[in-house]
Amino acid sequence: MELKEKLTILADSAKYDASCSSSGSDRKNESGLGNGAISGICHSFSNDGRCISLLKILMTNCCVFDCKYCVNRKSNHVKRAIFTPEEICELTISFYRRNYIEGLFLSSGILRNPDYTMEKLIETVSLLRHKYHFSGYIHAKAIPGASDCLVKKLGVLVDRLSINTELPSESGLKLLAPNKQSKKIEHTMSVVKQNRSRVFTPAGQSTQMIIGATKETDYNIMSKSSDLYQRYDLKRVFYSAYISVNKDKLLPTLELPPLKREHRLYQADFLLRFYHYQVDDLLDREHQNFNVLVDPKVDWALRHLNEFPKEINQASYYDLLKVPGIGPTSAKKIIESRKIFTITFQDLKKMGISLKRAKYFILCNGVYFASKDIFQKDFIEKNLVLEGRELTSTQGRQLSLFGNE
User: Fold this and answer.
1) Rounded to whole angstroms, how far apart are CA atoms 157 and 127?
2) Are 120 and 59 in contact (CB under 8 A)?
3) Strand ranges for 236-293 from DSSP E
4) How many CB atoms lie within 10 A of CB 59?
5) Phi, psi (rounded to 5 degrees) for 209
6) What is the mean pLDDT of residues 117-132?
7) How many CB atoms lie within 10 A of CB 20?
């Protein structure tokens, strides 16, 4: 098979894996090609505004596993291909020299068994580092069930490892991915955590969960994510909306992937990592799924109107983070600015704060942005009615108090 045809097959086979993003690596280039700088590599924009990219491929789409949701499962009749380690190295260097990429994301189907697959990944990355002297960013997928020593060998060669959780629950794995086990997945995560250092996966580890293939609620998913962050010091949990690529009686029939749900989960994930929210702040057993019409922070605020409004000139940093439209950077600006002067709504505009959302939840020096009548009409029509909710008597009392100037 020609190399171009292999690339077409194995790049396409890798497209469903979302768990590659900015590296956060500080790997320096002492000699050779590339630099895994702290700005990172991803299919997005870095903090300094650069659009950066990486070669994203599978080593092979041959797989001995038969996960129901996977296009590369062994029971599917798809065209198969395998890259040799040398071919992957040559592609990476060739693309890098043409300025197409800045790094490599390398994953693989399970060829023979987890240990054999890991050995081939190690051989590939070792060649790239030592023979081709590539010092750029490399993100590889560790194979759950592989020997600890192989995980360690791969970890010293790459910037980031990821181990996909696949599905949010053990029952989901048993149903749709019977060859995979949560204990093996999490054991590999623990090996990465225990050995992490400046020379072992300096950019940490990440994981991915498929959303919508099984019946777990958003509460189940976010609880799982929170647990993984705390126990394994993950950098990111990626959420991948289930895409129907196989026909199977155990799989749901969806006309479109649940992309809005995926988006809300990402927003909630940011609240957990950067806004000091807990899962139980956002969801509970009576309210187990996010509202797809409004973001989770606004949804939380609507259900906790008694905590508002917040006085901009007095509220703590953590209270400011609860206000829709105010993030960590804006909250820090407010804290620093009010040491010098009393902040007005005009000052908030100059700081780049979204008053379109924040104005309903704040006071500036004891004053609302809008009058009580405009506030109530605008707030109820654009938020509560939009959600399809009826205003309960309790919310009505809260809103009445909230509207008092």
Assistant:
1) 10
2) yes
3) 236-241
4) 26
5) -125, 140
6) 97
7) 27
User: How wide is the angle at C-alpha 222 spanned by C-alphas 217 and 226, nearest 5°?
Assistant: 150
* CA 118/CA 142 separation, integer angstroms: 7
7 vs 83, 105, 219, CA distance in Å? 8, 14, 39
**Which secondary structure element, helix H or strand E, spans residue 209, and what is its range?**
strand 205-211
What predicted TM-score, i.e. pTM, was given to this entire model?
Answer: 0.84
Q: For residue 234, what pLDDT is reported?
A: 94
Instruction: Please state the φ and ψ torsions of residue 166, each to the nearest 5 degrees.
Output: 75, -65
Which CATH number does the domain 3-206 belong to among 3.30.365.10, 3.20.20.70, 1.10.357.10, 3.40.50.150?
3.20.20.70
Q: Which of 115, 169, 103, 173 is nearest to 146 (CA)?
A: 115
How does residue 20 score in pLDDT terms, banded at 50, 70 and 90? Answer: low
Question: What's the pLDDT score for residue 388?
Answer: 45
List C-alpha distances in Å: 299 to 239, 271, 316, 319.
Answer: 20, 12, 21, 16
Cα three-residue angle 373-378-384, rounded to 5 degrees: 120
- Distance between CA atoms of residues 377 and 383, nearest Å: 10
Cβ atoms < 10 Å from Cβ of 374: 12
Query: Can you tell me the distance from the alpha carbon of 325 to that of 345, in angstroms, rounded to the nearest whole number?
Result: 13
Give the residue range(s) of CATH 3.20.20.70 domains in the chain: 3-206
**108: closest CA among 69, 139, 153?**
139
Say whether 163 sits in a helix, a strand or coil: coil
**Whole-number pLDDT of residue 38:** 36
**Does position 399 have pLDDT exceeding 80, yes or no?**
no
Q: Is the pLDDT of residue 352 over 70?
A: yes
